[in-house]
């Protein structure tokens, strides 16, 4: 499972560059990442840069939405389990129903953890954002 921000970087620059960026981050070579992203984006038209900015903002909003909704998902799963226990269902129905709720909850938990604690992806996205804003600003100043 990949974080939303990691998927964005892979979609924009490819899986190979994403792994290179991850390695460079661990070696604290952020300027190399910025230069590579900047050079890649510099040759793109302003329409492409605007679409990239839109995709960046949508990905960040999705990541934030996953974090915000997790508390409601946790409460919903707990209420569903309590409701199933209160209904007095037979064990042949109760156990699989609680199992399905548990599987769904653990999937959402894994999704939340991956998106909440993806420091590496956040750092790469911030470098991407800086390069993108810099190029958009340059394009506006040239016109």
Q: Would you tell me the structural class of the helices and strands?
A: mainly alpha
The succession of helices and strands, N to C, reads HHHHHH
Task: Label the overall shape.
Answer: elongated
| Biggest sheet layout | none
- What does the average pLDDT come to? 93
Percent in helix: over 70%
Rg, rounded, reads 21 Å
Q: Which ranges are low-confidence, i.e. pLDDT below 50, for 5 or more consecutive residues?
A: none
As a percent range, the share of strand residues is: under 5%
Number of helices: 6
Overall number of strands: 0
Termini Cα gap: 42 Å
Chain oligomer state? single chain
Report what the structure shows:
- The protein is mainly α.
- The chain is built from 6 helices and no strands.
- It has helices at 4-13, 15-26, 30-42, 46-86, 91-116, 119-142.
- α1 packs across α2 (15-26) and α1 packs antiparallel against α4.
- The chain starts with a helix and ends with a helix.
- The mean pLDDT is 93.
Topology:
Layout: H1 4-13, H2 15-26, H3 30-42, H4 46-86, H5 91-116, H6 119-142
Q: What's a quick, concise take on this entry?
A:
88% of the residues lie in helices and 0% in strands.
Task: Jot down its keywords.
6 helices; mainly alpha
């Amino acid at each position: 499972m990949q974080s939303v921000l990691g998927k964005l970087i892979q979609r924009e620059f490819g899986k190979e560059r994403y792994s290179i960026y991850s390695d460079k981050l661990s070696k604290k070579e952020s300027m190399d990442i910025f230069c590579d992203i900047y050079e890649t984006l510099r040759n793109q038209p302003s329409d492409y840069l605007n679409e990239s900015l839109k995709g960046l903002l949508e990905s960040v909003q999705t990541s934030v939405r996953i974090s915000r909704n997790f508390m409601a998902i946790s409460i919903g799963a707990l209420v569903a389990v309590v409701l199933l226990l209160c209904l007095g269902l037979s064990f042949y129905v109760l156990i699989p129903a609680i199992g399905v709720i548990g599987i769904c909850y653990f999937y959402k938990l894994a999704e939340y953890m991956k998106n909440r604690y993806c420091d590496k992806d956040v750092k790469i996205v911030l470098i991407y954002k800086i390069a993108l804003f810099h190029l958009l600003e340059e394009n506006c100043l040239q016109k």
